[in-house]
Specification:
Length: about 375
């Protein structure tokens, strides 16, 4: 059985030979072959390295098959009922900056973005149950299995001991109702709930087709959050692009925002009442920024936007070698991060710095080439 594909994260070819249990992954200039005997007798450090890299490449291949090579991105931004001018002003400001950031992207399309708020206006609908339902149905009708829908909720949340809610104008929507609505979306869903009491949404919406970010990590964290402020800032801040690829992934935005929240509480000498989680492997557990765990492999290859996504080599074939080099470096960064606990801290940071410098140089070459076209 042979599966082939072209991935915007690198040129790869995957062959699976069922008859002899041979697994082979080719990624440009290197080839790994892992047979059944190797899998059973994996004792050497080098073979363990091979297996980790193969697993990473297989994940990249799986990501392509599940829509992460999306050619279309859609976004639904919702600010709910504020319950007061102070909250309302903050929600409006965060929503406005988020929408401005999305619209500033090169491939932005207005038809791919739906914005809902307590007070409707130009290009802004009402954030009611009906408004949310119609928005999701409208976007889902235009999506395919290769599409990605980004949903960002800013506002108040609540939890009654059974299910959590996001406060809307009029009757609220519970987490189970959000799960039912988003279950109709044909593509991948990135769901970001920045409110207090948002953790139950992770439990409800977690699946292999969803990437979930919540501002809180337990049912008892129900206070107002500052996570939305830092999440929106991270989307617009070039410093969030830690791998120097020229754009910030969902994982990078999550980690940058989480760091900002921790620093905010530290500077004020206050105990943090919110700890954000990310889940993208469907186990419903999630992890905090900086923690080891399986979550994040998909989120690091998702880049928030609202519009068509065109592979870079489709517009400039000359960039193919540079893009391939960049993706090889990204794989090396990921492998280094995965082995962080096995390396002395000084050596880890030295190697990481070297890789990031190389990655920044290649990314700059790609950007300069795009400008020169």
């Amino acid at each position: 059985m042979i599966a082939r594909g072209v991935n915007p994260f690198g040129v790869w070819r995957l062959r699976v030979s069922v008859g002899n249990w041979l697994r082979q992954v080719e990624h440009r200039r290197f080839t790994f072959r892992v047979g059944l005997v190797d899998l059973l007798l994996a004792r050497s450090g080098f073979l363990r390295l091979k297996l980790r890299v193969v697993a990473l490449l297989l994940l990249v291949a799986w990501s392509t098959e599940t829509g992460l090579s999306a050619q279309d991105q859609y976004a639904l931004v919702v600010t709910g009922a504020a319950g007061g001018s102070t909250f309302g002003d903050n929600y409006d400001r965060w929503r406005s900056r988020l929408v401005t950031t999305l619209r500033a992207q090169p491939m932005f399309e207005q038809a791919n973005l739906v914005v809902l708020a307590e007070r409707p206006g130009p290009d802004v609908g009402r954030s009611s149950r009906e408004g949310v339902r119609l928005a999701i149905e409208r976007l889902a009708a235009r999506m395919s299995s290769d599409s990605v829908l980004y949903v960002v909720l800013i506002g108040h949340g609540s939890f009654d001991g059974v299910d959590a809610k996001f406060n809307l104008v009029g009757p609220d929507l519970e987490a189970r109702e959000w799960a039912a609505l988003l279950g109709l979306v044909p593509g991948h869903v990135v769901f970001v709930n920045t409110t207090g009491a948002s953790f139950p949404f992770l439990e409800r919406l977690s699946s292999r087709g969803n990437t979930i970010v919540t501002a809180t990590r337990s049912n008892v964290q129900r206070f107002e959050t500052i996570f939305p402020q830092f999440f929106v800032e991270a989307l617009a801040n070039p410093l969030a692009d830690t791998d120097k690829s020229g754009r910030s992934s969902v994982l990078e935005v999550f980690e940058f925002a989480s760091s900002g929240v921790r620093e905010w509480y530290r500077e004020r000498g206050r105990l943090a009442t919110e700890r954000a989680l990310l889940d993208d492997n469907g186990d419903g557990l999630g992890r905090e920024a900086g923690q080891l765990g399986p979550d994040g492999a998909i989120a690091e290859n998702l880049y928030p936007g609202a519009g068509p996504v065109e592979p870079e080599w489709a517009t400039d074939p000359r960039s193919v070698p540079l893009i391939a080099r960049r993706e090889t470096l990204r794989l090396e960064v990921g492998e280094l991060k995965a082995s962080k606990h096995e390396i002395a801290p000084a050596e880890y940071h030295r190697k990481l710095e070297l890789l990031l410098i190389r990655l920044a140089r290649v990314s700059r070459q790609i950007r300069v080439g795009a400008v020169d076209k």
